[in-house]
Amino acid sequence: MQWTDRIRQTKIILVVVATIIVVASLAVSRMLTRDLEVEERHKMEIWAEAMRTLNLADENTDLNLVLRVINDNNSIPVVVLDAKGHVQSARNVNVRGQSDADSVKKVNAMAQQLLAEGRFVRISLNDASKNEYIYVCYADSLMLQRLAIYPYVQLGIGLIFVLVALMALRTSKRAEQNKVWVGLSKETAHQLGTPISSLMAWTEVLKETHPDDDLIPEMENDIKRLQLIADRFSKIGSLPEPLPASLNEVMAHAIDYIDKRTPKRINLVTQFPSEDIILNLNASLFEWVIENLCKNAVDAIGEQPGTITLSMQKTAQKVIIEISDTGKGIRKKDIGNVFRPGFTTKKRGWGLGLSLAKRIVEEYHQGKIMVKSSEVGIGTTFLIELKA
What we know:
Blueprint: H1 2-56, H2 64-71, E1 78-81, E2 87-91, H3 100-116, E3 120-124, E4 133-138, H4 142-209, H5 215-236, E5 243-246, H6 247-260, E6 266-271, E7 278-281, H7 283-301, E8 306-314, E9 318-325, H8 332-335, H9 353-364, E10 368-375, E11 379-387
Parallel strand pairs: 6-8
Antiparallel strand pairs: 1-2, 1-4, 3-4, 5-7, 8-9, 9-11, 10-11
Helix pairs in contact: 1-2, 1-4, 4-5, 6-7, 7-9
């Protein structure tokens, strides 16, 4: 549990750090964009003054510097309007219409929009009393437009890279977990095989030497149980093929096993439909799921009296199984972790029961298992959905 909390805290720290980096990147980019906007504004003021000088020039005016300033603007779109708002000239404006008149109309619309946005420099041509002036309207240069968009493109590429990396890590982790599951299951089944065979031989010897001993049948039952456990582990390490089976019988068999090993203070209640439900199941493994859920419910109830309720209902497309208890419940922050391998709220436990149940339900039976509801001090309800 502490390990899971530590991982969650690490993820939160990483998200916060990533957010700070992204915000800082956008802030720096915005600052650079504003600086470039100011610089382009100054350039336009110089360019407008050059236009003013050109309009006021006479035969004695040296126009070399003026023409150089005007011709050096090869990046900033500019539209010059007279005092009446008519287009006088345009530079670096890529507007094409179906005709010259249509092009002029589009350029004029662009200039009017720039005027409305306040992106212009007003230059008086003569004395202010004569009211002769021009408007030099300008838009963002291509470099400024790219600089404004670039941080978001960079952010998008970064997010895609992070998502791909997370998916790759998740896939790699899942593949590694599957290898561990398979290896552990096969090794467990193999290790159980030898002592089970020896126990079977010893029971035969005991039958011959003590044929009337009442404990021998109980020993045989325990050996059968061990054989069942070994069989389950061997199936976990492979892909067992589900076969048509009665869900009612599978549930009843699992409940009967749990009921015999449950304290009398805990009441098992079943709510099953009268009609038999036939599904494609691996009966042995699915019984294991029910046993794990019921054992967890018993542990959750603890030393107090309580009730475990198992219900089934069938719809047109699915079968729903619910297992509820009146135990201590699960904290909201832990609900998302209950199916993770290694997570447990018990002082003694491996945290594998629910992850094993999830694997059996979802991978072997193409169903779903989830925590339907849980409240601390009231109880928990697990829900299983299977295709009808």
